Amino acid sequence: MTKTMEFLKRQAVRALRGAEKYTRTDMVYMATNGSWLGIKTVLAAFLALGVSVAFANLLPVHVYGEYKYVLSVLGILSLTTLPGLGTSVVRSIAKGFDGTPHAVLVTKIRWGFLGALGSAGLAAYYWYAGNLTLAGAFLVSAVFLPYVDTLSMFATILSGKKLFRVSILYEIGVQLVGAIAVVATLLVTDSLMYVLLAYFSAYTLARFVALRIASARYLTNTSVDTGALPYGLHLSAMEVLATIAESVNSLLLWFFIGPSQLAMYAFAKAIPTQILGGLKKLSVIALPKFATRDLADIKETLLRRLMWLWVGLFVLFIAYVLAAPYIFHTLFPKYVDAIFYTELIALSFLLFPKKIIGTVLNAHMRTKELYLNSILTPCVQLVLAVILTPTYGITGAIISELSAQAFSLVLVTVLLFRTTHVSR
User: Fold this and answer.
1) Residue 12 lies in a domain
2) Which value, to the nearest 10 degrees, does the dihedral of the CA atoms of residues 336, 342, 343, 346 take?
3) Is the CB of residue 289 less than 8 Å from the CB of residue 29?
4) Please, what's the largest Cα pairwise distance for the chain?
C-alpha cells in the first residue's frame, strides 16, 4: 500500500509539474496548500451555515438586524486595533523576524482601547436614550474590542511560516468553538446582549489559546523587524476608508429602512461573503511566494494565471446562482425575499482577481499604489452608497459595492503594470 501511495504521489507531482508550462505557476505548492484551503473552506462553510440556520430560525428578524448593526459599528471602531499590521507581520515572519508578532500585538491592544472607549460612549448614549438593548450590546462589545480580533495573530504567524495546513486546523478549531457557543446561546435566549457575550467570549478565549500554542511552537527567535510597524501603520491607514465603505450600507439601511431590511441584506451577503473569505486564502498562500519573487517576473505570468482563476470563478458563480433558491427555501424560509439579492451579490466572485493583484502590491510594498486604491475605491463606494442606498434600498447598496469592486479591479491592474521597479 505504501509503495502504491508513493507511486501515485510521484505521478501527481509529475502531472502538476507538466501543467506549469500552461499556468506558469508552482502547481505543486498551490496544490499542497490549496488542497488544505479547500478543506478549510468546506468545513468553515458548514460551520457558518449552521450558525446562519440557527440565527435564521431562532432569532427574530429585527433582533438579527440589531446584531448586524452592532457588528457594523464595531467594524469601524476596530480600526483602532490597526488591522493592517497583520499583513506586515506575515512579511516579517517570512523573512525570519519571529519577534515581530509580540511587539505588534502589544501595540494593537493598546490602540484598541480607543475603540473600546468609543463603544462605551455609544453604550452611554443608548442608555440615556432609553434603548437598553443596544446599550448593553455596546457595553459588552467595549470589553472585548481590543482583544477579539487582535488575538487572531496566530493565523498571521502560521501564514508567515507557510504552515497553511496547521493554520487551517487552528482556524477551524476557533470557529468551531465560536459556533458552538453562539448556537447554544440561541437555543436558550434571543437576548442580543447575551448572544454578543457568547460570541465575543468564545472567540477571544479560543484565539488566545491558539496564539499561545502557535507562539510557543513556531516562533524560534526574538528578532524584530523595525520596518514592520511603520509599514503596518501605512496598511492600517489604507483600510480606514475601505472599512467605513464596507459598513456604510448596513448603517444606511439601518437608519433609512430599518433593522428587518438590514437583516435581509445581511443574509443575502452571508454565503457569498463566506465563499469570498475562503477564496481570500489564495492570497494568503500567495503572499510569501510573491514577497520572495521579482516583481518583473510576477508581471510576466500574472495575467495567464488570473485568466485560469477567472474561469473557475465563473463556474462558481453559475453554480451558486442555481443553488441559491434551494438553499434559501430550505434553510432560511424567513428570508426567501433575499434570493435575488444574494444572486446579484454573487457577481462579486468574478471581481475577486483584484485581491490577488492587491496581494502582489502588498508583497512588494508598493505603498503609493496601495494608497491610491485604498482612497479612490472607498470614495467611489461611499458616493454611490449615499446616492443609491437611501433611494433603492438593498439593490442600491449592492450596486454600489459591485461598482466599487469593478473600479478597484481596473485600478489595481493599471497600477501594477505601470510600475517599473521593486520597492523594498
Assistant:
1) no
2) -160
3) yes
4) 72
- Here the contacts of 337-343 (C-beta below 8 Å, separation 24 or greater) are 337/264, 338/264, 338/265, 338/267, 338/268, 341/264, 341/265, 341/268, 341/394, 341/395, 341/398, 342/267, 342/268, 342/269, 342/270, 342/271, 342/272
| 6 grid coordinates | 508513493
pLDDT tens per residue, range 392-402: 999 999 999 99
Asked whether the CA dihedral 154, 155, 157, 162 is positive or negative, the reply is positive
User: What is the C-alpha to C-alpha distance for residues 99 and 81, in angstroms, rounded to an integer?
Assistant: 19
Q: Which domain holds residue 234?
A: 24-417
Considering its fold, how many domains does the chain have in total? 1
List pLDDT tens digits, range 20-33.
444 444 444 444 54
State pLDDT tens for residues 46-79. Answer: 888 889 999 999 999 999 999 999 999 999 999 9
8 Å CB contact between 353 and 302: no
| 413/396: higher pLDDT | 396
Domain assignment present for 14: no
Banded model confidence at residue 241, pLDDT cuts 50, 70, 90: confident
Which has the closest alpha carbon to 259: 198, 346, 192? 192
